[in-house]
Amino acid sequence: MWTDLGQPLTLSLQVALAATACCVLVGTPLAWLLARRRGTAVAVVEAAVILPLALPPTVIGYGLLLALGRSGLGSVLEEIGFPFLFSLRGAVAASTVIALPLFVLPARAAIEGVDRLAEDAARLDGAGPLTTLVRVTLPLAWRGLLAAMVLAFARSLGEFGATLMVAGRIPGRTETLPLAIYGAVESGRREEALGPVLVLAAIALMAAVVQRGWLRHRG
User: What is the pTM assigned to this prediction?
Assistant: First the structure.
């Protein structure tokens, strides 16, 4: 059941780490915006962030196909040598979109938990909004942000539907652990699916324990 598990595991870790990094880069400003600003535009951004939680992953995958395919940005991306479809980049893009709300929502809660008085004191000392965010808000919210990162990583690691549509199941190139499970079951080799299932379950359990520990001691 452990046959040829190394390559899908390596690809899964690469995709999950890259997607988590993308979630942090994109999601941290979004989390701050949702936590500290109000208005119609912010409500629209919040709805867009939450949307992947409500839509089936295959719908997200179809949307990415339209956006990154030849009818969208695909032709331009191919011309500059940066194609997304049926590549590891496509898998990262799919995992990022699916995992982003699971980073942003707990990250927003962590930022909302930061005492506004500390931020006001920094601004009174002459710090700008960006300096206040980097030197005051994020350090005080670090436990919640790390918990959000763990949740995004675990979700990225287990992403299947959107990844299958955008990146395909190409052994050695885009076949992550969830896709390896799908391939094994689809071809009638159910015993080969047990190894990837156990690995994903173990990683998800560890992520849940770590996240719970950080959230419990937050503050």
Answer: 0.88
